[in-house]
Amino acid sequence: MSSTSAQRSRALDLLKTRGMLRLKDFVAEGIGPETLSRLIREEAVVRPARGLYQLRDTQVDTSHVLAEAAMLVPKGIVCLTSALQFHELTLQMPSAIWMAIDRTAWRPKIDYPRIRFVRFTGAALTEGVVRHRIEGIEVPVTEPARTIVDCFRYRAKVGLDVAMEGLREGLRRRRVTHDDLWRYARKSRVWPVMRPYVEAMASDGS
What we know:
This protein has 206 residues and is an alpha+beta fold. It is built from 10 helices and 8 strands. It has 2 domains: 53 residues, no CATH class; 142 residues, no CATH class. The longest helix is centred in the first third of the chain and has 16 residues. It is elongated and about 70 Å long. 37% of the residues are buried.
């Protein structure tokens, strides 16, 4: 088998196993840009975003797009409405993926998928963040209680109705506890805003 054929086979095997790869991942495996260009011309491989490669017949759903975003923004955290959707606590379909990055981090310019950024700092970048495996990609996502509190904190961006829906579903499905909500809300200084909604939903049996 020629070197070119070997690289081609190796590239396809890697994509079948790992789902998505960046150019530097291929280079680390000894696969050159010329091989990737040839696979794209053959329509065996597609490039959904600059520097990101996947097989042509890859099924695209919400989780897949989150994995794409995580590959393109390695230090980003899926949050707000996108995290609510991941946890199945909202019927909202956000038009963009919400991701948090460090307050001092460079903001990536990405055409696809569409990403909206917010800035977190300090403990907010790690506390209540759980890393999930999606198609072999590690995707950091804020946990349910943290996500609901963040939605109240950023209610001007996502809408109070979205935050209330997340709270209602989180309590109804017992994905969150009052103690967890209070703990995160106190640190974010939004408990005075959240408290009336939490108490009202608790009295209604939500």
